[in-house]
Amino acid sequence: MTMPLSQGPLAAPDTRGRLGAYARLAKLDVWDYYLAFPLAWALAGFSPSALVVLLVFGLGTVCVVAGSVAFDDVTGYRDGSDAANYGPDAPARRLARKPLLTGELSEAEAIRFGWAAAGAGAALWLLAVLIAPFAPLWTVLLAALCLASSVQYSWGLKISYRGWQEVFLAGFGTGLVLVGVGLSTGGLTGFGAVQAVLFGLGPLLFGVYSNTRDAEGDAAVGRPTVAAIVSAQANRGFIAGLTAAEIALVVTAAGLGPAPWWFALAMLPAMGVRVAQLRRGVGLGDLLAARLLGLRAHRVTTATLVAVNLILVVGAGS
């Protein structure tokens, strides 16, 4: 029997729709953690051999993060925090980021996707270790810690439900840079460590504004973010303290630490965006705009760090 011609065109949009739902489940539009790999490559002196390793490790990271956020969505769906934070009055574009809430994917489908993505990520990370020119033990152990903590972020041990969310947000990004550099060079300089920490502070300093916006829903389900467990005034002080700590790290690294003297000057644009973020979010209370400024600050910071390393590499070779 011949298949009706109308079934072909009808199937394609449905397939595309499901692929789009899985892409939104994986949060592929939020790629800021993946900027760790251009930075790690810059810290490795833009070595061609390092690029191959970092591409494999980076692709694995996309899978690991996809699995982690899929599990996070399942947990948020089960405990009702996503329903509270992404209620029916949320803009359609924002609500669409939660395909479990919209009914596009089932809970079982999301769980299967989470395990498949995490498994693929683990396999790619292992491949990166096997083909890397260097694989010191600390690098392998740190990669294992990043993998375990990412999967267990809101699944299994649920570390983000035990007061570790802010630590994870900063630590995971820092760890990605450190592992990438370790696999590429076998070691780490003091200035490289400073840059890894600055990178890790980026996701934390836009995450805390999201946590502030979601504080009520998180508190209702027992997810103890700083914003959910302290007063509004104390939370504002916490965010201001993180911002000041980042700026202090830049200034100290340039003045007393391993960075070149001009490092703080190079970082002025990024720190300017960071101060604008603090004013917008803490001073004016515009949390969404502050989060967007945090994304920009992180991207400007990473681009500046890559440029600084390029200048150092060119200067060393001249």
UniProtKB/TrEMBL annotation:
Which residues span the membrane? 39-71, 167-185, 191-209, 237-254, 297-317
Indicate whether Transmembrane appears among the record's keywords. yes
Keywords annotated in UniProt: Membrane, Menaquinone biosynthesis, Transferase, Transmembrane, Transmembrane helix
State the source organism's domain of life.
Answer: Bacteria
Q: What is the annotated localization of this protein?
A: Membrane
Its membrane topology is listed as: Multi-pass membrane protein
CC terms in the record's Gene Ontology section = membrane
Q: Which GO terms describe its molecular function?
A: prenyltransferase activity
Assign the protein's first listed, main location to one coarse class. membrane
The record ties this protein, via InterPro entries, to: UbiA_prenyltransferase, UbiA_sf, UBIAD1
Biological or metabolic pathway of the protein: Quinol/quinone metabolism; menaquinone biosynthesis
What GO biological process, any one, is recorded here? menaquinone biosynthetic process
PANTHER family attached to this UniProt entry:
1,4-DIHYDROXY-2-NAPHTHOATE OCTAPRENYLTRANSFERASE, UBIA PRENYLTRANSFERASE DOMAIN-CONTAINING PROTEIN 1
Protein name stated in the entry = 1,4-dihydroxy-2-naphthoate octaprenyltransferase
Q: Which organism is it from?
A: Actinokineospora cianjurensis
